[in-house]
Structure formats: structure tokens, C-alpha cells
């Protein structure tokens, strides 16, 4: 079966209508392209590949679809994860709101996480494929460039912190490996390399690997209470606060845009950082001894920072 048909079928099988990348519209644009029949030899420079007719419709259309899809995915993933992490009465209300029967919630949650991971990955492939097709038709690199632009606009699904959280969530709630296998050709797990450093391995179709090294570049240990910066790098919460020159009480939102990521040196990456609660839970379960020791050490530091923060607040109030 062709990819476009498989994509459509996957979306049809979803229990409710979900936003999609309208591949047929985009294909129709490329089909009517005027320069596609030009011989590649006649297109020596980048300007020869320029196609204002396609560009006017192709990129705005795919951008619109992508933002609808990414917003939908992020919102749904957050709702699901929030209902997992929420407790007591709040959890009950949330589940009622989501029309889930409490009895079947475990199976429902697993199914929903699987559907969302499948949805994100198959959509990411659909986007990659149509951008490649754009480049093939035009003999250009514009499609690839657009892909990198989308990453900086946080529209790349495979780089979404919520996809990582959903995968960690799925491992956390699955009772066995069989429950975990059933996602659209996606396999992921937590591993340790030869030097016992933890790695989050993600294998996608077409032998694409999205492996994440979970060693913090600041403390050089396994990320503790991890946060996902907007540049896609992961640090311990405390380490991120020290790099961003804020206390744990003020939080990363108080960081100025001048503070840079210690890995890629990009600025303004702390304000929109996402706390990876599911990954944190997964790591704490897989290395309980390390987690407990780190928790004890950090608790003292957190108390110290909180004390200093409130003392300075009191001083400035009295002055
Ligand atoms: Zn064209
Ligand atoms: Zn660290
Ligand atoms: Zn970075």
C-alpha cells in the first residue's frame, strides 16, 4: 500500500475525527507545477528552481496544517499526562470530563497514548515525504530548509517534549512489553550504554533513530528532575536553574533571554522549558538508589535556596 493511503487509513481508524496534513491538496499543487517538466540541466542555480506559483500555495498550506496538527497533539498529550499525574478528586473530575469510565481507564490510557504516539510519528513522516517530493519536483533544497525552520517554530512533532513524555508514560503504565509493542512500528525503551549512562532509544520506521542521551552536561550525571529546553536539550532542573542564574523558587520562567543553553548556545531557551514528569518517574523507577541519594542531596540545596530567597525578599520589603 502506498504511504498516502496508509496515512489516510490510519486517520480514518481513529475513534474521532483528527486534524490531518492534507496530502492530496499539496500533491495537486505539485502536479500543476510549471517548472517540473524543465530538464534538471536547465536548472543550474537556486533561482532556476524558484517556483513562486507553488510557493504561494504549498508552504502556507502545509504550515497551516502543521500548526493545527501540532496544537492538537500537544493539547491532547498534555490532557492525558495531566490526568495521569493528577490525583484524588481532581483526577476523578478530569476522567469524568474526558468521558472515561474509571474501571477501564488503564486500558483507555494505554490505547490513547499509543494512538497519539502513532498519530505524531505517521504525521511527521507524511510531512517529511511531501517536503521531499517538493524538492524532487523542483530540484531544490527548499523543502529541507522549511523542515529546519519548522523545528525552530516548534512545529516538528518528532522534537516535541510531549512525544517523549508520552513514550515515557507508556512505559510507566504498561504492565508488560507486549502492551508496549503495539504502536505503529515505533519501538522505544530506556537503556544503559557500556559506561552505564542512560539512553532513551527510539526506533522509528525507515531505520530512523531518535536516541536521547540522558546525561546532564552540567553535573555529568543522569538528568535528575529533567527539564526539556526549547532548543530540545535536556538538563536537570537544578542545573538548568544554576545555568539560567535563577533560584529554584523563582523558577526557569524568571530567566532572562540572554541566558544560553550550555550545549547549543541558543538564547531564551529556559522560559518555555517543559518539566518532564513522566521521564522523571521512569528514571526514578529504573535507578532507585541513585534517585534517592540525589533527592536527599538536592533537598538540602532547595531548602537553602528557599531560605535565602525569602530572607532577601523580607529585607527588600523592610527597606
Ligand atoms: Zn512548482
Ligand atoms: Zn545536572
Ligand atoms: Zn540547546
UniProtKB/TrEMBL annotation:
Its EC number is 2.3.2.27. GO terms for biological process: protein ubiquitination. Pathway: Protein modification; protein ubiquitination. GO terms for molecular function: ubiquitin protein ligase activity; zinc ion binding. It catalyses: S-ubiquitinyl-[E2 ubiquitin-conjugating enzyme]-L-cysteine + [acceptor protein]-L-lysine = [E2 ubiquitin-conjugating enzyme]-L-cysteine + N(6)-ubiquitinyl-[acceptor protein]-L-lysine. Keywords: Metal-binding, Transferase, Ubl conjugation pathway, Zinc, Zinc-finger. It comes from the Eukaryota. Pfam families: zf-C3HC4. This is RING-type E3 ubiquitin transferase. It comes from Rosa chinensis (China rose). InterPro entries: BAH1, SPX_dom, Znf_C3HC4_RING-type, Znf_RING, Znf_RING/FYVE/PHD, Znf_RING_CS. PANTHER family: E3 UBIQUITIN-PROTEIN LIGASE BAH1 (PTHR46764), E3 UBIQUITIN-PROTEIN LIGASE NLA (PTHR46764:SF1). Residues 1-148 form the SPX domain. Residues 216-265 form the RING-type domain.
Amino acid at each position: 500500500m502506498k504511504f498516502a493511503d496508509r496515512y489516510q487509513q490510519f486517520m480514518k481508524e481513529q475513534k474521532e475525527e483528527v486534524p490531518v496534513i492534507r496530502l492530496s491538496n499539496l500533491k495537486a499543487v505539485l502536479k500543476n507545477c510549471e517548472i517540473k517538466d524543465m530538464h534538471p540541466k536547465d536548472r543550474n542555480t537556486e533561482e532556476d528552481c524558484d517556483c513562486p506559483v507553488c510557493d504561494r500555495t504549498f508552504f502556507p498550506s502545509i504550515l497551516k496544517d502543521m500548526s493545527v496538527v501540532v496544537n492538537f497533539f500537544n493539547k491532547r498529550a498534555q490532557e492525558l499526562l495531566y490526568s495521569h499525574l493528577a490525583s484524588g478528586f481532581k483526577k476523578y473530575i478530569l476522567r469524568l470530563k474526558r468521558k472515561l469510565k474509571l474501571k477501564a481507564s488503564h486500558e483507555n490510557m494505554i490505547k490513547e497514548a499509543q494512538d497519539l504516539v502513532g498519530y505524531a510519528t505517521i504525521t511527521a513522516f507524511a510531512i517529511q515525504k511531501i517536503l521531499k517530493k517538493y524538492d524532487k519536483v523542483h530540484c531544490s533544497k527548499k523543502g529541507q530548509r522549511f523542515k529546519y525552520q519548522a523545528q525552530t517554530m516548534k512545529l516538528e512533532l518528532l522534537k516535541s517534549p510531549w512525544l517523549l513524555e508520552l513514550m515515557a508514560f507508556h512505559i510507566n503504565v504498561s504492565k508488560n512489553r507486549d502492551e508496549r509493542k503495539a504502536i505503529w512500528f515505533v519501538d522505544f525503551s530506556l537503556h544503559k550504554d557500556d559506561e552505564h549512562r542512560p539512553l532513551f532509544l527510539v526506533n522509528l520506521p525507515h531505520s530512523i533513530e531518535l536516541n536521547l542521551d540522558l546525561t546532564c552536561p552540567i553535573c555529568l550525571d543522569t538528568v535528575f528532575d529533567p527539564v526539556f529546553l526549547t532548543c530540545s536539550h535536556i538538563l536537570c532542573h537544578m542545573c538548568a536553574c544554576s545555568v539560567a542564574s535563577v533560584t529554584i523558587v523563582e523558577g526557569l520562567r524568571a530567566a532572562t533571554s540572554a541566558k544560553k543553553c550550555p550545549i547549543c548556545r541558543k538564547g531564551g531557551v529556559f522560559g518555555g522549558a517543559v518539566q518532564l514528569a513522566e521521564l522523571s518517574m521512569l528514571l526514578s523507577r529504573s535507578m532507585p538508589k541513585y534517585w534517592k541519594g540525589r533527592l536527599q542531596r538536592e533537598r538540602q540545596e532547595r531548602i537553602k535556596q528557599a531560605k535565602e530567597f525569602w530572607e532577601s525578599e523580607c529585607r527588600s520589603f523592610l527597606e
